[in-house]
Amino acid sequence: MSGAGLGTARLRRAAARTASVAARSIAIFVPVFLVATFVTFALRSLSGLSPAHLQLGESATPESLARIEHEWGLDRPFLTQYLDWFGKVLSGDLGTSWYNGADISRLLTEGAVISLSVAGLALLIGVVFGFGFGILAALRRTTWVDRVITGAMTFISVMPSFVVGIALVAVFAVSLDWLPSAGWVPAERGFGLWLAHITLPAIALSFDTVSDVARQLRAGLVAAYRENYVTGALVRGLGPRRIFFRHVLRNGIGPALTVLGLKFPNLLGGAVVTEAVFGMPGFGQFAAASAQRGDVPAVQGVLVVSIVLVVVFNLLVNLILARLTPASARGV
Amino acid sequence: MSDAALRLTDVRIHDAVGDRDIVHGVSFELTPGKVVGIVGESGSGKTLTCRAVLGILPRHFSVTGGTIELAGRDTSGLTQREWTGLRGTTVGAVFQDPASYLNPSIRIGAQLAEVVRVKKGLTRREARRRALDLLSSVRLREPDLVYRQYPHELSGGMLQRVLIAAAIAADPQLLIADEATTALDVTVQAEILDLLTELRERTGMALIVVSHDLAVVAQLCDEVLVMRDGIVVEQGPTARVLYDPRHDYTRLLIAEHEQYGLDRFRDAAEPALSKELDHVG
Fold it and tell me: Per the CB < 8 Å rule, is A233 touching B103?
């Protein structure tokens, strides 16, 4: 009976904790989203660009200019335009392209599938190899294994992804002919084919993440191993594996996870260059092309999607951290 | 042949980096229910001696001479796995700065339950009950509350009680208290010393009390070792060492203490001391 009482009390506490964490996350997300989208929208007025330039070119007369701006609703007051745009953004409508009148949400979704495939695989590679090398180096700290890993991580961290990409293509696509050198195939046309096309760009993109995660994790774990609670666990007679997973990893993982959160925007941003090298019509290519054309609604759409992805990803990292090391959430 | 919980015979500890002996021949024997005190200033080798008994000497340090027998078993040839088996069940330890010896990310209860689950093979439910029992056995007032608190939510005295509970969770025959009361204020220190005495009487475990404070040792111990620069300069029954010190260094320690009222401890019987401390505090 009292056991059941304890059980429900524990459940209620857990629910309250989850609710407070969720509330705090929303409290962070909403203002960031509001400010960032406002700045994004203000870009058009700041840039002075107009769809009329795009459509009419040099031959525009003031009358036709005004007519086109009126068609796009750009002669309305700024705040009206903003509220109209923001309302549509909330419902998932990012407007139409100045360049070809296409639905930006649809274009972005097509591009985002490609970029997120590459960035997601790069993230996976970064996590698997970053954690693998970091843990190995920490467990073999100060031995030659540690030195080799640390040296290799420093080396790959300074290699730009476009150089790595070109080198990978030269070796694995041209010389060995194992993987396609460029292009994109949707997953619906075969998982293997899809994976083959995103593997090289993902590897090129992941180097930075692998090295940063590995180095942060190594440092975090080595520091955690020096802590007294490891000695404490040792004298209580706990085995080395249990000490590693329950006591060292849990407390030493913080910096690596934080870096992973910071790396995610880099993976999206890095996609611009990697997609160019590998000829993939992704999010980054779309962003670059739209910016060069002065297609403001498209650039705004790219920014809105990036803001949401980056903020959500960092919130996720923070939630995991708060769960793993509750003491770190104090005073936040 | 031996019913000793611990027997040290001429133990020497060597530092490979400085290439010199840090501890030069420590010998003592500890039978169940007895208490040995080791006194000396920092750097005298008392903590290294304890770490050797626990098998957790720092890197580059090793036992190069003599033998350490834990519950009749020579520890010199033990593998890591055998050490892991002995720690907790045969020998436990508590240290100074108790907060740092607990994992900051795991609740108190879970850390205690972990020990009994690993060392005694209890189920989750049994481990929880045992952990609550342990918390009340170290006289924490609200075991249910402490069970679900994190280390940073407790005071130093409470944490030292928790650490003691974790150390005795698997019923060791020997408990090492290395400066366990040093960072605590005087009344809390007296309570912890009382607790150690009570646990020793109840469970019959042997106790090593390491301190730079003669008062602590005087209060608890049957036998005292006075160490300086890795050498045991004086060793004998507590009363004899305190009343009739033979080495200059021991006399110096006692003289220094007399200014702070050590005679109170020299004259009084052991358990009555903490009450007197309470009056003072």
Answer: yes
Q: What is the ipTM of this complex?
A: 0.83
B residues 57-86 near A, CB within 8 Å?
A: 80-81, 84-86
List, for residues A74-95, the tens digit of each pLDDT value: 777 888 888 888 888 888 887 8
How near does any CA of chain B get to the CA of A239, in Å? 6
Q: What are the helix (H) ranges across A226-253? A: 228-235, 240-242, 250-252
What is the C-alpha separation between A274 and A271, in angstroms, rounded? 5
Check residue B239 and report its DSSP letter. Answer: H
Contact B248, B64 (CB under 8 A): no
- The CA angle B76-B79-B82, to the nearest 5 degrees, is 100
Q: B21 at the A interface (CB within 8 A)?
A: no
Taking an 8 Å cut-off on Cβ atoms, the answer to whether A236 and B150 are in contact is: no
CATH architecture group of domain B1-78+175-281: 3-Layer(aba) Sandwich (3.40)
Q: What is the 3-state secondary structure (H, E, C) of B99-139?
A: HHHCCCCCCHHHHHHHHHHHHHCCCHHHHHHHHHHHHHHCC
Let me know if A75 is exposed, middle or buried by CB neighbors in 10 A (0-12, 13-18, 19+).
exposed
Q: Where in chain B is the domain with CATH 3.40.50.300?
A: 1-78+175-281
Pairing assessment for the beta strands B174-178 and B206-211 based on DSSP bridges = parallel
